[in-house]
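re: ur question from earlier - yeah i can do the single chain one, its not a big deal. heres the input i used so u can compare w yours
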Amino acid sequence: MMKRTDILRVLKQTSRTFYIPISRLPAQLQDTVGSAYLCMRAIDEIEDHPSLDNKTKAFLLHRLSWALQAGIAGPGTGIAQVDVLFASYRRLLPEVTLRIGDWLARIPTGIAPRVWDATIAMADRMAYWTEHNWEILSEDDLNSYTFSVAGSVGLLICDIWTWFDGTQIDREAAIRFGRGLQSVNILRNRAEDAERKVSFYPSGWTDREMFAYAHKQLELAKASITTVHAQTFRSMVDIPLALAEATLDALENGQPKLTRSQVLQIVGHV
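and the output i got, formated as tokens:
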């Protein structure tokens, strides 16, 4: 049976932002939140894959969604279909994607259907944006995209904590938390996105408008989240929030990303 250390190993490889807070959670939450994050990252790796064309990406994402919907009918039903789906792409897809069945299997029974549902929905949403070449023309489009890939994950986090200890989180704040983090990623990765001829900036927007959007989302999320007294939840979101705010400051000052020493200093302070 897969061990918790395996989740943390792959998590560390895929996200320096979330590895630290997740690794500090109680054991049951490490399994649940860590596995849920890896499911989302598994899908994200398909959407962002540098070698696959959009048609193939959309096909894989839609078929993954279909297989997981079938999998809810019973243990292993859909995972076998996922293995078949990925068979021809094993040399292209990373470990985190190929092992999505392992991550789903590690999630406790009481919350597993919610995580499966979120994973299914995320696959279909990302397929939609892939099919439309991530066309964002207005702020409404940006709001739709940032909810699709990040704000909705904030809602999943709320549900996990309610399941775990009854904590009730401001769900709108959780959406803004996801949107804020995603908009920071958009700013940080703009040059890379441009190389693949993709822009997440609404028509007519410059860095000025995107920075304002990101700051607004993070500030509104922080205002509500700081009123939450549940220590387990705060330990999960405080570090990503602090890193996102620091990254915005660094980008505005012309620094492409935070240095390792800056990250360690922020984590230590939080």
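The domain at 1-133 is CATH 1.10.600.10 (Farnesyl Diphosphate Synthase). not sure if urs matches, ping me
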